[in-house]
Specification:
Structural class of chain B: alpha+beta
Number of helices of chain A: 2
CATH topology of the largest domain in chain A: Jelly Rolls
Strand order of the largest sheet of chain B: 3-2-1-4
Largest interface: A-B, 29 and 25 residues
CATH superfamily of the largest domain in chain A: Galactose-binding domain-like
Strand content of chain A: 35-45%
Structural class of chain A: mainly beta
Radius of gyration of chain A: 22 Å
Number of strands of chain A: 20
Number of helices of chain B: 1
Order of helices and strands of chain A: HEEEEEEEEEEEEHEEEEEEEE
Strand order of the largest sheet of chain A: 1-3-4-12-6-9
Oligomer: heterodimer
Number of domains of chain A: 2
Shape of chain B: globular
Order of helices and strands of chain B: EEEHE
Distance between the termini of chain B: 33 Å
Largest sheet of chain A: 6 strands, antiparallel
Strand content of chain B: 35-45%
Shape of chain A: globular
Number of strands of chain B: 4
Distance between the termini of chain A: 44 Å
């Protein structure tokens, strides 16, 4: 095939030439919550550092990890997500697990046409690096219809960036609802007990079978405090070929992340929001979110925290009882969470 | 997924209304606010799940 024909075929296989990457913050540029979180283990599933990428554990593991936004990255990237084992767990119980997850909002996946005979294949590509060579597992999950698929990839060379590509057929059975809920979950399994490895990798979509989740995984990243694992350049796109990573401006990725979470911290010498008089007995502060959030967010604020508030996906108001119109009240920090 | 470690929850009110409008709750030692009816918010959904399971009680507003 000529180069021109190859190019035409490649273009024809893609649904779009921009906004092709369904992953948010795949280059690990945005870390609103901070660049490092230590002692992550049992009970610490959640978002800690790099936006949109979630630390998750299962069972009652005794391991501990530091999760961070690292500057160790392959050529063309500035950052990666890093997991560094700080307390080893060499004897995982059957339900113990360690994974990194990424959730995609359902309404952003409607063009995959899942649940129809036209369901699209997708390709996941990413850069990965670890001192621990072996076979790792990636698990895909559709919450709406409880469908799952699992694949493996191999890290062949220690401490070397490797580019991995995983293609997944379209699911003609499971329907991804057109809403703001969870449409797709991608999980990189890094350690697991037998409850999630004793099955077989179901490389096409099937009804969830937990024993297949991490089938084929033959490493335990928690086995030694020497272990570390890096991830960046994550891209999920329509088609059966991985194309070059779609680099986005930091500002673009930040806006996308803020739909799910944002925070404002006090800066030196000033507070972030002041109350004004609402009526004779109450003061009010209003905060307008930088983007419409996925759903009405959970709020946590510090400063003059009132006990009454209103919260919507577009703004937040807090009320504080005060009859003194000359009293200055302010908020110091604000965190809004609408994560999947 | 594991159960969130919500240790207490209390209704809150809108200043213009005497009805309950939200829930203030403590998760992992930190206080958060979420409005009633915020279905799809992972914290609200979890609070409702724990209330239905009988493992969490939302106390009255002050």
């Amino acid at each position: 095939m000529s180069k021109a024909a190859e190019l035409a075929a490649l273009i024809g296989s893609q649904s779009s030439l921009s906004n092709k990457n369904l992953i948010i913050n795949g280059a690990m540029q945005v870390a609103q919550r901070g660049t490092s979180a230590t002692s992550l283990g049992n009970g610490n599933s959640g978002y800690h550092t790099v936006d949109r990428f979630r630390f998750a554990e299962g069972g009652t593991p005794t391991y501990a990890f530091t999760m961070s936004q690292s500057t160790t990255a392959p050529t063309g990237f500035s950052n990666s997500l890093k997991l560094d084992c700080t307390t080893a767990d060499t004897s995982l119980a059957s339900t113990d697990a360690l994974l990194v997850e990424h959730f995609i909002e359902a309404q952003n996946l409607q063009h995959l046409k899942y649940g129809t005979t036209s369901a699209e294949s997708v390709t996941l590509s990413f850069w990965v690096r670890s001192n621990l060579t072996g076979t790792y597992a990636v698990w895909f999950y559709q919450e709406d219809d409880n469908r799952a698929a699992s694949k493996t990839y191999t890290i062949s060379a220690a401490d070397t960036w490797e580019h991995k590509t995983i293609t997944l057929s379209g699911d003609q059975t499971g329907v991804i609802d057109n809403n703001n809920g969870q449409g797709f979950r991608i999980a990189w399994y890094l350690a697991s007990g037998t409850s999630y490895t004793s099955g077989t990798a179901n490389t096409d979509w099937q009804t969830l079978d937990n024993t297949n989740r991490a089938a084929g995984l033959n490493v335990n990243l928690a086995s030694s405090t020497s272990n570390e694992w890096y991830l960046t350049g994550v891209q999920l796109e329509i088609g059966e070929q991985a194309t070059p990573f779609e680099h986005r401006f930091y500002s673009d990725e930040l806006r996308r992340c803020e739909r799910y979470y944002y925070q404002v911290n006090t800066v030196s010498g000033g507070n972030i929001a002041y109350f004004h008089n609402y009526n004779d007995s109450t003061k009010m502060v209003s905060v307008y979110h930088p983007v419409t959030m996925r759903t009405i967010p959970t709020a946590t604020v510090t400063g003059n925290v009132g006990t009454e508030y209103r919260s919507h996906d577009g703004h937040f108001q807090m009320f504080y009882g005060s009859t003194n119109s000359n009293t200055t009240l302010n908020l110091d920090t604000m965190f809004f969470d609408a994560e999947l | 997924m594991k159960t969130l470690n919500i240790t207490s929850a209390q209704y809150t009110r809108d200043p213009d209304d005497t009805e309950n409008a939200g829930i203030s709750f403590v998760l992992d030692g930190k206080t958060y606010q979420v409005v009633l009816g915020a279905v799809g918010n992972r914290h609200y959904d979890e609070i409702m799940r724990q209330v239905a399971a009988g493992t969490l009680t939302i106390t009255d507003a002050d």
